[in-house]
Amino acid sequence: MIHDMIAIVRDYWLLLLIGQYPNGPLGGLANTLILSALSIALAFPISILFAMARLSKAPLLRWPVTALVYFTRGVPLLMLILWSYFLVPLLTGADVPSFVTMLTTLVVYQSAFLSEVVRAGIVALGPGQMDASRALGHSYVGAMRYIILPQALYNMIPSILSTFVSTIKDTTLGYVINVPDLTFAASQVNNQLLTQPFQVFLILAIVYFAICWTLTYFANRLERRITRRRAGLLNVPAAVVTPSKIVSEQL
Amino acid sequence: MSGFDLSAILGNPEYAAMLLHGIEMTFIIYAGSWSLAMALALLLLAVRLSPFRFGDPLVAAYVSYHRNVPTLVQLMLWYFGIFTLMPNGVATWLASHNAEAIFAVIGLGLCQAAYFSEDLRSGVRSVGPGQMEAARALGHGYVSAMRFVIMPQGVRNALPPLINHSVSLFKNSSLAVVIGASELTHAVKEIENLSFRTFEIYLIGTVLYLFFSLVIMSIGAYLSMRADPARSARA
């Protein structure tokens, strides 16, 4: 059994790593990581805007974003993927690769979740920071830019890292619309071998575990460090500045 | 195919029956995996709370595996992997008894147990140690103190994350479509293939998921209120 798994890794490591590239589209683990990194990179700025909109006093900004966040959290990711699969080509009028469809879905989905993280970070700072910076002559934008966001985002680094872990796990659902990621590559390997599905999918599980566990481990260490550092820096009980733990989506 | 027309789907008895069957299967999978997860979570919690330390690393490994491997991959490992390793007789029996749904229940339930047990553990941990000491001083044995003093408070503390994760489990039941279970998402895709009314059927499917998620959330909110009216009023 172990021998079978070693043999599979030996024969198919390139396919699992980069898919059919350069003879086909980039795939495998590389694609999984690129897709996750891109969607977090794109979702991050959007989520800051969403969080500010949700904290704004203007109902016209607050309500649509709140509705979007609630909608995104109430519907399975799979349904959202199917929506994009049908809507994105319709709206752009072009033949869109499944990678782009998946990226669009993940950006919308993670923006909604990350905005909750950022919002929690801003709320956890307390109103005093904003009051003080306004009193010092900062405009709202200036206070956000120089006082609130740097602190809030620094506190949120561990939560952002765990959102990244959820994104890596979410990319597996691209399997449904044939995104050539790691899961897709593994099922290709399984289709070629036919006789060793358990071994193939066990390898798949181990690879995901190794990546996500490592990231989770660093997120936890970073969290302890940040809590300690901020507690020392501000000379207040750590609990006051500890970012409130968010319930990360669990796919 | 012209215009937006929900009745093209809801008015068609065949499609309506498919939708109803999908909803039914979704709820069977949800109820099955929820019960399995809760039973297992209580077992994992008992191991964690027991004075014997040797079970702890096992439970930690269990939780770590299920939290760091995507649920979809866990389902695939169960259905495509472990199913094929089963002895012939068992496999044939399962295949003729809706194996997809059974493995969806097993996969989702085992995965969810990890989340439920962590929720319960932090709920129980937030009950102060004085409660146990007081209960023991009043003459309760360990088991009876757990049963009547610690657990009721612990479960109440754990209610909010448990509700969140119950909603997640409901949404994750849609993953069962990947291993071929005929639940709601499956019905939606089938009807789309037959009717070509993509927009309408996705809208119906989405509204159904949203509706049931909200129902589960409000049941949860009601339970939290019942469990602790004072705290809910403050929150």
TrEMBL record, chain A:
Q: Which residues cross the membrane?
A: 33-53, 65-86, 106-125, 146-165, 198-220
Supply the SUPFAM superfamilies for this chain.
MetI-like (SSF161098)
Report the leader peptide range. Answer: none
**GO CC annotations on file:** ATP-binding cassette (ABC) transporter complex
Stretches assigned to the ABC transmembrane type-1 domain:
29-219
Location (main, coarse): membrane
Family annotation (InterPro entries): AA_ABC_transptr_permease_3TM, ArtM/GltK/GlnP/TcyL/YhdX-like, MetI-like, MetI-like_sf
Task: Give the record's membrane topology.
Answer: Multi-pass membrane protein
Q: Which GO terms describe its biological process?
A: amino acid transport
Entry's localization field: Cell inner membrane; Cell membrane
- Example GO molecular function: transmembrane transporter activity
Entry keyword set: Cell membrane, Membrane, Plasmid, Transmembrane, Transmembrane helix, Transport
PANTHER family, alphabetically? Answer: AMINO ACID ABC TRANSPORTER PERMEASE, MEMBRANE COMPONENT OF AMINO ACID ABC TRANSPORTER
Q: What family does the entry list? A: Belongs to the binding-protein-dependent transport system permease family. HisMQ subfamily.
- Can you say what this protein is called? Probable amino acid ABC transporter, permease protein
Species per Swiss-Prot/TrEMBL record: Rhizobium etli (strain ATCC 51251 / DSM 11541 / JCM 21823 / NBRC 15573 / CFN 42)
